[in-house]
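Data availability (excerpt). The following record was deposited with the supplementary files.
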Amino acid sequence: MPRIIHTIVISLALITLVMADAAVAQQAAEPPMLTDPRMVVIPTRTAAEITTDMENVRATHSLAEIHRQQAEERLARIDATIDTRKAAIDEVNRRKDEAKRAQRRTEAIALDLEKKANEQAVDLLKKLKDLRKAEVEAAKTEAELADTQLKTLGLELELVRKRIEYDSLYVARVGDLALSTHQQVLRELEVRVLKSQKDQAEATQKVASKQKDIITRRTKLHEAQLKMGMPR
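Predicted structure:
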């Protein structure tokens, strides 16, 4: 009986040693969470997720450029229309002066009304011009936001790659100097990502401000159209 108990004790001791060795091996294979400098400062995402986001942002950038070109074309047409209206006002003034000199009062009154109508149209066109300018600026800020987003995503993708390299080096049990160097690289990349994310947030606020300005100008233009009794 004592031999059996002795055998059991030895077996339990061996099992304990084996389990301890396995735990040590597992710890050696995984970066220690409490001392890992990468610890959830920036959430971990896969390279595939980031790449998909980059493709979507590139599409958004292209769309913003199209919107800018369209707004610039509309702005150019508004400028041409304003010039035409101003030329019409000059012509009406000339005819009105002639009517006054010839004492054609009825014609002068009619021409005066025509002049006022053209002046109102010019005022309305100027409001429309301001709206088109705001649309151009908004499209530019949208493109700038996309550029900032691409920069942020590029840095985040590089961070993912460096994290994978760090894990590989840790598992390979390389020297402390190599690990320390990679830790410094990771910290620097995290700082750059966070700064770029801040720039991105500010660019997002700028886009929102431009969109708000557009809505304000559209509201004023709509009110002016209603005041002039323009058909909807």
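Summary of structural features: The chain is about 85% helix and 0% strand.
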